[in-house]
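Sample entry (774 residues):
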Amino acid sequence: MSAPRPRRLPDKPSLDGLEDTWGRRWDEEKTYAFDRSKQRAEVYAIDTPPPTVSGSLHIGHVFSYTHTDLIARYQRMRGRTVFYPMGWDDNGLPTERRVQHYFGVRCDPYLPYEPEFQPPEQPGKEQQPVSRRNFIELCHRLTAIDEEAYERIWRRLGLSVDWTYLYTTIGDAARAASQRAFLRNLARDEAYSAHAPTLWDVTYGTAVAQAELEDRERPGAYHRLLFTDGYGKSVPIETTRPELLPACVAAVCHPDDERYQHLIGTRLRTPLFDVEVPVHAHRLAEPDKGSGVAMVCTFGDLTDVTWWRELNLPTRAMIGRAGRVVADPPESVAPAPYAEISGLTAKQARRRIAELLAAAGALDGEPREITHPVKFYERGEQPLEIVTTRQWYLRNGGRDTPLREQLLDRGAELTWTPEFMRHRYQHWVEGLTGDWLISRQRYFGVPIPVWHRLDEMGLPMYDAPLVPSEGELPVDPSSQAPPGFDESQRGRPGGFIADPDVMDTWATSSLTPQLAGGWERDPDLYGRVFPMDLRPQSHEIIRTWLFSTVVRSHLEHGVLPWRRAVISGWILDPDRKKMSKSRGKAVTPDEWLDKYGADAVRYWAASGRRAWTRRSTRTRCASAGDWRSSCSTPRSSCSACARRPVTRSRSANPASRCRRARSVSHWTGPCSRRSQRWSVTPRPPSSGTTTQRPWMRRSASSGCSATTTWSWSRSGRTARADPTARGRRRRRWRSRCRCSYGCSRRSCRTPPRRSGPGGGTARCTARRGRPPAS
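Predicted structure, serialized as tokens:
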């Protein structure tokens, strides 16, 4: 028998192609295939987040999806078969926006379909209008390209996904499931349509839900308008939106405000337009805001909507869907001054109304400039308007107290990791002010499966919608006729029209457990995986994806969609902000995978500690001009600092004195009790009121980010001098250092600790710019 031949190592070992080799082997051997012969008790099912297919993945996706993959592999090691599918969220506004920029086109639903249409090879500055069907075809074409790139990254990373269960949120199965769930909600009176004030994004021409809002600080000005009472006496009212004066329907004051008790129940006349409006008392009026009296317009903000609804006020709409003043004046409004602002944008009308008020002597003083929060759509670039439109809503507890309590109980029933993320869910549910608006005036989405009859005058009859049977799903009402009608009756009196809206992308994504599990499509699979075991996701979409999924599962099945939710954090971009594709500062994983390989990247992701209990964030304050733990500007007025306090894992932690801490700083316990892990990231240079002086320099001891200052005093004055100077000059030593509490102060407030039998105290060694002894 011959001796075994010794193996020869290559001269230059390389990892090139290793991921592809093992990926092919796993596919051939079905290493991660889901075993459908196992019973539910032996299955571990994961509701994997379907990434939005628009652009490219970034390193933050790699970070969080690697954590989910580690959980899946761990459960396999415990002997369970893991249901680990992957999905693509490929419908909605992000996809439409990418298609518009990529191909240089825009959708015009009134254009006819062109079967042989090809987009321009080089998109120009002006986007070419195309029909809705052509636009949707381009959306499918581009998402197919992006999905291939996404799958290549996940396979290269080594995610143990069973790719045979891949799903999309725009495929036939997803559209059928979304429409089926909607029809059942409609049959149970959980979905309804209403003509009501709607938050409207002018840029994208669509309604926006409460969960998609964000406040942004914007400059504005208070204009002091002079109304008149029945005796001709002036009543000042301050407003930031004088252009809405034609839409004024009432004035309100607080019921306990003694200054205006005599006005309650009387009427005022508006300046310039001379319209009588009643004066009401309401608890939401703020006596210390402006003059204490507010004018109610339809509609300037959400408070106006509340007053309009609770006080049963009339509607005088004047802002259209394009964000411009409508041509016809509201009822009882004089047409002459209104013609001055007709057709203008809100900003242009504000400027013109201010000029007219000043010329008429109805403006008291000059406008007072302020900075205030303004509502924006999270993807929008212009402030939202409130427009009266007909939309579809889904009940979510915003106006139904029993349902709200049931959804709060669902949140308490769910196991949260980390536990304190439960409070974000609770606060969101408790703060809801209305039902979930699920309709969108867009194109690439799941159509709402509804038609409306037309009466003899050709007007829609919204009270009796026409719906298909579940066996006909999915349907496209814009190209299909309802049961009992034919295409020749579309748009004719006595015929029908299709509902023009599509569903919000969250209305489909909220059904990911049903989509992946084969709800009503594969009962055997669905019985083995639902309810699922795990929902991994990020914390900023608790209010959208997690809550919406709980709502849909509670209404349809009466159970939670999963047993545990694991909430991940963010990867920060170079500006220490959330890494996001929409912000254009995302780091793609290709370079890292090429340079280090999948194993190194996975090891980096697996080594990341959970940031919630032992890491906090420091913000550069514009008013202070440097990096600091606490901003000296009051939180109510500082627009540069983040608006959330440092999260603490211990209620007695002295770090509660610090509002901000650097994101790379870690604390592992009180000073001089445990070792301190010092940051190796250098402190950014100051760029404000604080200036680096020649006699200020960093300590070089063990990487501590300390700034040590030497000063010498003589006769009560401070003089700069050589540190080695002697004589009458007395050297005083001070330091400012980030201690283990995450603060940055001249004196560390570490509580004294008795040490040894003799008593004594242990000082914080971080004070002197040195890491404490381990």
